[in-house]
Amino acid sequence: MEWLVSLVGVGLVLAVLRDLFHTLWHPTRHGGISRFVMTSMWRLARRSRLRPRMLGLVGPLAMVTVVGLWAVIIILGWAIIYWPHMPGAFTLTPGSRAAQQPALLDSVYLSLVTVATLGLGDITPGEGWLRLASPLEALVGFALLTATVSWVLEIYPALTRRRVLAIRLALLHRSAPTTEHIDSVAGAALLDGLATEVVRVRIDFTQYAEAYYFHDGEDHSSLAAVLGYAVALARQGQAARRPDVRLAGDLLAGALDDLATILDQRFLHLDGTTTEVFAAYAADHDRKVTQP
């Protein structure tokens, strides 16, 4: 029975490690806990009366919540591993009151001290397998800290790339380039550059799915609001006379279709056209599509 309880703790720890792997390091980023928390908080914010303000807080708060859940589950998982063997399989320092406390409380205390790598030493494992398990928990705690820092350092550059593309499209829309502007060497370079940036954003949504739940603030920096204009630019390029501009227009249109497919499959589940998906994306982020 003692080993069955410990195996429950092992299962909890492995579940968090799996979620860490899929959220931070797996190319498709299918994290279970993180995706559930972010999706739930996003839906709650959309139903709130303070929707614009709440949507802006979802991304950062959801990341903090996910990291907190990872830490709590790891601590509880290791505590459950220790619990059936407490205090008999551990050595207590002279004068320690640990043996006078409930075994579960001592187990949580030991787990918290170990995962934080404090190493106070008032409770130390005595049996051989526990002497191996305890340092392993410290390694897991260090991995959690490293993973949290890596997650933050990865997600915000992805948001920057998305907002840069949005602002560029907004500036182009304000400039209102004519058919003559697009049907030129500079127009071909412009459309090709936009296609490259759209592909980068598409990859970001694949590898950093959490970025979807970050609200972009103002309309001019919101990709959800200006993607409709990118579609119009692609069509304008496809209708040009110059073959290089038509090719660049085809590239941009293909990149936008690919981005719409990712948004639809992973977040919106609309099964619609590119225009319909982008309109749903804008509505989900409380934005209106910019008209050509």
TrEMBL record:
Top-rank taxon: Bacteria
Signal peptide (from-to): none
Matching Pfam families: Ion_trans_2
InterPro entries for this protein: K_chnl_dom
Protein name: Potassium channel domain-containing protein
Keyword Transmembrane helix set for record: yes
Record's keyword terms, sorted: Membrane, Transmembrane, Transmembrane helix
Membrane-crossing segments per the record: 57-83, 138-159
Annotated Potassium channel domain residues: 83-152
SUPFAM superfamilies given in the database record: Voltage-gated potassium channels
